[in-house]
Amino acid sequence: MDIASKDPALGTKPKAQELSRWKRIRKDYDLYLMLVPGLLFLAIFKYTPMYGLVIAFQDFTIFKGIQDSPWVGLKHFNRLINNDQFFDVLTNTVLISVYKLVFLFPAPIVIALLLNELTKMFFKRVVQSVVYLPHFISWVIVSGLFINMLSVNGGIVNTIITKLGGSPIPFFLDPGIFRSLLVVTEGWKEVGWGTIVYLAAISSIDPQLYEAARMDGANRFRQILHVTLPGMASTIVLMLILRLGHMLEAGTEQVLVMYNPVVYNVADVIGTYVYRVGLGASDYSFSTAVGLFESVVAFLLIVTGNALCKKYLGRSIW
Amino acid sequence: MAQMNAAAPRRKGKTGGIRTSFGDKLFTTANYLFFCLLGAATLFPFLNIIAKSLSSEGAVVSGMVTVYPIDFQLGTYKLVLGNTQFLNSFKITAFITVLGTLLSLLFTVLSAYPLSKPNLAFRKPLLLVFIFTMLFNGGLIPTYLLMQKIGMVNTVWSLFVPGLIAVFNMLVVKNFFEGIPESLEESAKLDGASNVRILFSIILPLSMPVLATIGLFYAVTLWNSYFNAMAYITDPALKPLQLYLKELIDSTSDVMKMAGEVDINRDLNSTPEAVQAASIITATLPILFVYPFLQKYFVKGVLVGSVKG
Fold it and tell me: What value of ipTM does the predicted structure carry?
């Protein structure tokens, strides 16, 4: 992550340089030409949809377009607030996010600490290669793998349950289990990959600190507690703040491939709801209002997080 | 490791400088055991599905297959590789992955290089124009309406053009460029080389590690993406691999059968599970194939990208 704000050349700009700004642009015109494709891309595919958000305040129909659709003020937001379904969706989103935060945020930290204690380099490298791998597998395939293993027709897990005398469990159809399934599959896919940042933080800890701790008679557990953990503390806080910014995503792409009508009421998150109501039922204005709600909250979370980061850690995400 | 081995015998006696206590030994053993189990748990789903793809349908449905094939056969792979819809989807995904990755790298590098120049006039506002798109977005519906308006719905372009520049990747590349010593460019500048020339003949050859990493990230994202296809593609001839697989998995799984999503008729000739397994494996092979070669790069690349701040 970069720190644009710490750029010395920007902070203390001498006046002479300020005056020659246009001259510099003319001299380095090719640098600006290079920026054209990127800026055009952003203008079309990122900023135009932001303008399109105005349809949340209209009764938009595709025939009339944004220009001619009637303005209706906050009608769709009122609908949203008074909508029980939206309330369920919001609850699901926050619950799923919180479950994932509680169970999956600490896991990579613990695993990184334990990986760091492995002294056989070959073994360590093999373990790392293996645990990073699922990160590169698509959600479609991950859901395929788990549907396959948990199937009631010949899935290995239900075969074992049956052999032990239990009755088969339709994991993907049980509203009481589905959220746990979301947490477990995300854990399988991403926890290993999550260790990479913490391992990097650990590798930048001064080895002399360990020597000093050992001289003082610290065993390995004490070394972890008093040297390694404090050394990675700022990375942990940074990652936590980054995560909080994504609270309302709750793994939309994951839910969209894994869920089904039977578990909609416990699994529908904002992203999947927008998809179903918007593209499925063509209720454009209402689902745009839902999407705008998500975007605004996400924006506030990220900006607040970054401000906290700057204040307490002295480093910022952008 | 060599050091450890040399030192180990001397430490055995209780008189050595630092003793390995019983607790330490227990911890070490438990730790190695833990990672063996974690590795096994990570690999098990893969091994299970590979075994299923190589087993007879009867063995698969009866649930006998664990991590080795039962009634070994290769027929399902022949079926998968002979399936025109699968091959067509495979080709589309390969096309968008190759073209999309190359164009993404080009667009990303072209944006990152000027922004890596500390003296660029209006650098900060320009950077903000990029970063703001990471913080706020128009969301699904306005984006869909735009795609419809510019005629990209149901075209192969809709699968990679909306994601051409990932701003996060651009920032990683920019950080890397900033770490390259200025002096390398200065002599070329004195010889009258243009900025474009400097970028392509001096900077880029030095940037291979970061380009490989970012390229891998773009390629994996494109290979794995299904959301754009779900939103923008209805034409079966344009379905990329992941969407094809999603529909295949839905048609086979008891999830959709029991949820009433698949009607009885389709249910009767639903895809055999071994074929589904073989399709999943075949679609994953390209990633499994490039993964070992690029691993050393992405570890470095992530370090450049995430801990520099």
Answer: 0.88
Q: How many CB pairs below 8 A link A and B? A: 321
> In chain A, what percentage of residues exceed pLDDT 90?
71
Task: Write out chain B residues lying below 8 Å of A196, CB-based.
Answer: 299, 302
SS3 B101: helix
pLDDT over threshold 70, residue B114: yes
Name the pLDDT band for A1 (thresholds 50, 70, 90). very low
Q: Which residue in A1, A5, A62, A80 has the most chain B C-beta atoms within 10 A of its own C-beta, making it the best mutation to test that interface?
A: A1
Mean pLDDT estimate for chain A: 90
Q: Is the pLDDT of residue A10 over 90?
A: no
Mean pLDDT in residue range B185-201: 88
Q: Please state, in angstroms and rounded to a whole number, the distance separating the CA atoms of residues B43 and A265.
A: 32
Nearest to A154 among B31, B63, B113 (CB): B63
Residues of chain A contacting B276 with CB distance shorter than 8 Å: 144, 148
List CB contacts (< 8 A) between A139 and chain B: 224, 226
Q: According to the model, what pLDDT value does residue B265 have?
A: 40
The shortest CB-CB distance from A138 to any of B32, B64, B224 is to B224
Whole-model pTM: value is: 0.88
Q: What per-residue confidence (pLDDT) applies to B289?
A: 87
Q: How far apart are CA A171 and CA A205, in angstroms?
A: 44
Amino acid occupying residue A298 = A
Q: Which residue of B has its CA nearest to A317?
A: B309
A294 lies within 8 A of chain B by CB: yes
Q: Which residue matches tokens 């689902």?
A: A287
